[in-house]
Amino acid sequence: MHSPGPVPKSKRLLKILVFVGMVAAINLGGNWLIHQLDFQLFPRHDAMMNLVVLGFAAVYVLLMAIPFMPGIEIGLALMILLGSKGALLVYLCTLAALIISFLIGRIMPPRLLIRLLDWLHLERASALLARLEPLDRQQRLELMYARAPSRLLPLLLRHRNLAVIGLLNLPGNALIGGGGGIGVIAGMSGIFAFPVFVLLTAAATAPIPLLFYFEILAH
Question: Is the pLDDT of residue 45 over 60?
Answer without folding.
Answer: no
